[in-house]
Amino acid sequence: MGGEKEERLGIDNTWIRLDESEIKKHICTSLFGQKIYYYEEVDSTNTIAKRLGKIPGNHGALIIANSQKAGKGRLGREWISPKNKGIWMSLILTPRIDIRNASMLTLIAALGVNEGIRRITGLDSFIKWPNDIVVHGKKICGILTEMSTIQGKIECVVIGIGINVANTNFSNELEKKATSLEVELGCLIEKWELVNAILESMEKYYSIYIRTQSLIELKQEYNKQLINYKELVQVLDGEKGFKGVALGINEFGELLVETEKLMDGKVEKVIQKVVSGEVSVRGVYGYV
Length: 288
Ligand code: BTN
Prior knowledge:
Elements: E1 5-9, E2 15-19, H1 20-26, E3 36-42, H2 45-52, E4 62-68, E5 86-93, H3 104-121, E6 125-128, E7 132-135, E8 138-150, E9 153-164, H4 172-175, H5 181-185, H6 191-212, H7 219-224, E10 232-236, E11 242-249, E12 255-263, E13 266-274, E14 280-283
Parallel strand pairs: 3-4
Antiparallel strand pairs: 1-2, 4-5, 5-9, 6-7, 7-8, 8-9, 10-11, 10-14, 11-12, 12-13
This protein binds biotin (BTN).
């Protein structure tokens, strides 16, 4: 284990320090998080995970930090990660899968994180495709998946997970679209219980994914947790953006969106496949 101590909820509702052996007592998985590297402050846990992912034997290792100075978000955005306010962690995976299937791992992570949050907090959280977790219309968790390759093969995939736990003050810009577990629950949660629940759920979904090499057995579960399922959404993709009804994902993790197109003078329904990456999807009236 890389770090010395971590936090647990104390009587006065703040996190208190835990030592290494205590942390291990909370982790009941068979692989994910069996090795934990804990840091007080890092630039980004994803950056460290990518480095450690090159070292054999780190499949399933978890990098977790109390704060990040340069947390990374999707689409090149910054991820604000203050001290003692959240769970900032990255899971290293070195799967032997076709590189074309790697993007599905991000949806596996969303399934696991959402289930873990629901189990521990009882909150009605949902997935916003492909991998944001939202509660009451606001984002509580973001996931950034990064991959290193060697000669066209996967060297490692890093799943970076940022959960707002104890943040209660968001900037004006974030206030309308971000929330935290403390804001939603009115109290703090046991951080390691949640980390463990997430790892357990991710491990379960990951093994199904590895067996099938697709989302064929998981798409129904994913779609059940999908916010905006069968609702009108807008796909933001520069000039090519469009509106349509979200019909859930297919076995490749693409979002199916039903739109109307004018063909030979007639309005026809067309199903478009939206691939994750540089595209954002949101409801027609705001963030979700
Ligand atoms: C998003 O933009 O929604 C993705 C945010 C991902 C943030 C997490 S925090 C832990 C890990 N390390 C990073 O630098 N980013 C991810």
